[in-house]
């Protein structure tokens, strides 16, 4: 079946089978073929009406997102949905997989929507920075009521058949979906069709609908101020109270078009494809099968180890948590229990689920307990000899073919691998704190890591609900290596006269939820201080704060002060005094630093390091770097990640600013990397490198 739509008569009804692998995106050729099927059925004496159906996991996954970069190609979906509505014969959607975005909009044009058990219905357009553009904002509220429509579209979530049916979006079919759809066509053809949606206000006219809608809109006021698609969505839905369907569709289109071309939507679409591309390693054939992982051991029950154990238990995998002493193990288990209790208190977890997750985590004080595991992850102190010892011990006890992983953030995983007799089974799985929450998983391959070991890690990431990014073993991998540049510039900015509040405010107004110094205070300044000391590196202000015992929130003071009961840090004259003393020591002339300078200094050297990472092959593609920053470091998704942001800014501008910074700071390492310089000279961008 290679035609996008195959038109077949079955039991007196035409069935249009959609076929546009892998997910039935509603591409131009599929739209044209469906239009032809509609025209054919209208005059086909053998057909009482039409069923639209698809095999596999997707009915229609939505508009073809790749087409958004170009002007729309007719037939456009909005017109096609109107053509379905205007078809002289009944049309029924038989939905057995995902009907998302334009997919649901097509179904909304049908006389009925029958839902199989695997149906998932949603309008996720807002996640791409747009609103539904083919009637979703007008037809949905007529069926569900406007408040429910707003919640559905703003959440971008996909609904189960039960939930969709309870909202009025479709009817659940228990038996044979196609037979039920065919029977429904006959029933509609003989028994009369419901009035066209265009002719009825539906649930928009229910008493209290307006009030409920305005209350739901009020709850979204903050998002509406920040995200243009949410403001447009509220506008479009509000139109449905007063406009006819045709007027509402025209207004929806007017709201849709500028969103489609807005750089924020361009960035969010980049993120969509980059997330998917990041799960692929070019030289790893799709035929390589992951190894089975049914049992996991986590070595070290500190903050990271317990978080990692929780992440596995959350995915239903049994974990053996191993510590050196009963006391340390008990501390780790208490920590897990109290984190679960806090979630239960907040209402984000029910007590039964918390208990079953805890039951999946058993404890031991002997590395021999890792013997049965298919995968062991060490999260012990960041000391190479200690880690090498752990790897050598795991090598002795673990069964052949099991994987051994390190959660190190910086250390040499090749050196850990060679401490074992099976370096092909060793890799890095770098989780981000809190490991059970943060989505990023840096998967680090060494020179020796086997292809199927890598494939196992990628499959495992999916099972854990993480977004994997593959890196080669090299200091700091992708994220932390770039972060070091930002930290260095933040330190220098403080010396030059910027305050911690100003630096954090500049990054917040760029779009980060938290500023970098507030984040440092939250995660603790002492860990990186110890690491700097061990490697002979220095960040003068950060070092001086640590020397003064200011380790961040946990010690009550860092870049900010944290008085008892304060939820956020407050500006602290004592921190300012430390900063001024460091500046004086280095003979810095302190001045007012503008926001633009702060943003450029914090981001451009970071991007430059990203370019080096690409040049050295540490990251496979620029999009991987973007994904790492989005899911591990809070880079705003609507900016698309640092490398996409760089392309949008223009690499020649960035190169020129880096040259100027290198001169101003008398630091040749700030000069543009050869790759950045080359691309800038060609007027090209990082995206030209994508594989
Ligand atoms: C819309 O509909 C706007 C309308 O209102 C307006 C009309 C005017 N387009 O995710 P997967 C590719 S906006 C193009 O790994 P899964 C994807 O890139 C759209 N390509 O599979 C990947 O390719 P590759 C609203 C798409 O099983 C492959 O398919 N719809 C599209 O984990 C497999 O994808 C959405 O936002 C697309 N729409 O998940 C839904 N969708 O193999 C977006 C997928 O080369 N899609 N691809 O990497 C999804 O949420 C998930 O893909 C889905 C399947 C749940 C369907």
UniProtKB/TrEMBL annotation:
Fetch the PROSITE patterns from UniProt. Answer: ENOYL_COA_HYDRATASE
Q: Where are the transmembrane segments?
A: none
Q: Which residues form the 3-hydroxyacyl-CoA dehydrogenase NAD binding domain?
A: 296-472
Location, primary (coarse class): other
Q: Where is the 3-hydroxyacyl-CoA dehydrogenase C-terminal domain?
A: 476-562, 599-683
**To which pathway does this protein belong?**
Lipid metabolism; fatty acid beta-oxidation
Q: Does the keyword Metal-binding apply?
A: no
Q: Where in the cell is it found?
A: Peroxisome
As its record notes, the protein acts as a catalyst of: a (3S)-3-hydroxyacyl-CoA + NAD(+) = a 3-oxoacyl-CoA + NADH + H(+)
Keywords on record: Fatty acid metabolism, Isomerase, Lipid degradation, Lipid metabolism, Lyase, Multifunctional enzyme, NAD, Oxidoreductase, Peroxisome
Query: What InterPro entries does the record tag this protein with?
Result: 3-OHacyl-CoA_DH_NAD-bd (IPR006176), 3HC_DH_C (IPR006108), 6-PGluconate_DH-like_C_sf (IPR008927), ClpP/crotonase-like_dom_sf (IPR029045), Enoyl-CoA_hyd/isom_CS (IPR018376), Enoyl-CoA_hydra/iso (IPR001753), NAD(P)-bd_dom_sf (IPR036291)
- Cite the PANTHER family for this sequence: 3-HYDROXYACYL-COA DEHYDROGENASE-RELATED (PTHR23309:SF51), 3-HYDROXYACYL-COA DEHYROGENASE (PTHR23309)
Member of which family?
Belongs to the enoyl-CoA hydratase/isomerase family.
Q: What is this protein called?
A: 3-hydroxyacyl-CoA dehydrogenase NAD-binding domain-containing protein
Organism per entry: Teichococcus globiformis
